[in-house]
């Protein structure tokens, strides 16, 4: 599992985050600007922390003291960023297939299982009907679903030793509640079945509870608390229920 202990100055925030991922799905929860995306980018290798280390099991991904810095493409990590990044000249289907490990792609002679993976993920994200469209023909929410679907395919077909860690930065933020509800449950079931651990980012209390995940609560660049969602976000849930009550 992943162990993070980093310090990094970004904008007006002094990030000072230490935690270990011990559960299959962990949620990084905190207000806007608290440093959640920066933590994910440091784990993925797109941010070089000022000091500290990031370990995946026994492997050192970053250690500023000894100068180790594994580049992003060599890390056992797959990311779906906050904003969709799709290849504009490729169809939705080709974009999703692009996420597959190289040896699993069609040109390498795809097997029934691999076709099934793409079909299953496209069906989960409800993007089969969009398969032949190109990114400029998609809505914002549809683009986001395609982008997350590609990252999920990439994570579950990861061909290194062990499983890849899936990093999801607000993967459900552009979706309506009905779609989000179905997707949260389906995605959790799928990633657990493929034994793919997840660190996702949210500032949505309902989403954290629905995932039933371990929660790391972060504010102003610091980890305030880590534990089961019912413990860490009990106060937020109480406030949310009060807000929803009839006046
Ligand atoms: N490249 C950058 N240059 C300058 N400041 C930055 C940069 N990236 C992030 N910041 C600042 O660092 C702080 C943390 O940003 P970060 O994106 O990690 O927050 P976040 O918790 O993910 O926020 P949100 O929930 O709004 O996405 C913010 O104040 C942001 O404005």
UniProtKB/TrEMBL annotation:
Entry keywords, A to Z: ATP-binding, Nucleotide-binding, Transport
Record bears the keyword Nucleotide-binding: yes
Domain called ABC transporter: residue spans: 1-245
PROSITE patterns linked: ABC_TRANSPORTER_1, ABC_TRANSPORTER_2
Family annotation (SUPFAM superfamilies): P-loop containing nucleoside triphosphate hydrolases
Gene3D superfamilies: P-loop containing nucleotide triphosphate hydrolases
InterPro entries noted in UniProt: AAA+_ATPase, ABC_SmlMolc_Importer, ABC_transporter-like_ATP-bd, ABC_transporter-like_CS, P-loop_NTPase
Highest taxon in the source lineage: Bacteria
Record flagged with keyword Cell inner membrane: no
Coiled coil: none
Molecular-function GO terms, alphabetical: ATP binding; ATP hydrolysis activity
PANTHER family for the chain: SPERMIDINE/PUTRESCINE IMPORT ATP-BINDING PROTEIN POTA (PTHR42781), SPERMIDINE_PUTRESCINE IMPORT ATP-BINDING PROTEIN POTA (PTHR42781:SF4)
Name of this chain's protein: Molybdate transport system ATP-binding protein
Organism: Tunturiibacter empetritectus
Lineage: Bacteria, Pseudomonadati, Acidobacteriota, Terriglobia, Terriglobales
């Amino acid at each position: 599992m992943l162990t993070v202990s980093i310090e990094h100055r970004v904008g007006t925030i002094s990030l000072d985050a230490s935690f270990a991922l011990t559960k299959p799905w962990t949620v990084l929860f905190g207000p806007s600007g608290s440093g959640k995306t920066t933590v994910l980018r440091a784990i993925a290798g797109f941010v070089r922390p000022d000091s500290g280390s990031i370990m995946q099991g026994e492997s050192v991904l970053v250690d500023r003291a000894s100068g180790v810095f594994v580049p992003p493409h060599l890390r056992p990590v797959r990311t779906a960023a906050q904003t969709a990044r799709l290849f504009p000249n490729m169809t939705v289907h080709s974009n999703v297939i692009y996420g597959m490990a190289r040896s699993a792609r069609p040109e390498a002679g795809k097997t029934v299982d691999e076709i099934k993976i793409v079909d299953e993920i496209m069906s989960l994200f409800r993007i089969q009907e969009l398969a032949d469209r190109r990114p400029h023909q998609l809505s914002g929410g549809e683009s986001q679903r395609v982008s997350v679907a590609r990252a999920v395919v990439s994570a579950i077909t990861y061909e290194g030793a062990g499983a890849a860690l899936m990093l999801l930065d607000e993967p459900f933020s552009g979706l309506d509640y009905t779609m989000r509800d179905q997707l949260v449950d389906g995605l959790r079931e799928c990633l657990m079945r493929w034994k793919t651990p997840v660190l996702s980012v949210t500032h949505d209390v309902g989403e954290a509870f629905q995932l039933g995940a371990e929660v790391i609560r972060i504010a102003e660049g610091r980890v305030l608390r880590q534990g089961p969602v019912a413990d860490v976000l009990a106060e937020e849930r109480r406030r949310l229920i009060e807000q929803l009550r009839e006046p």
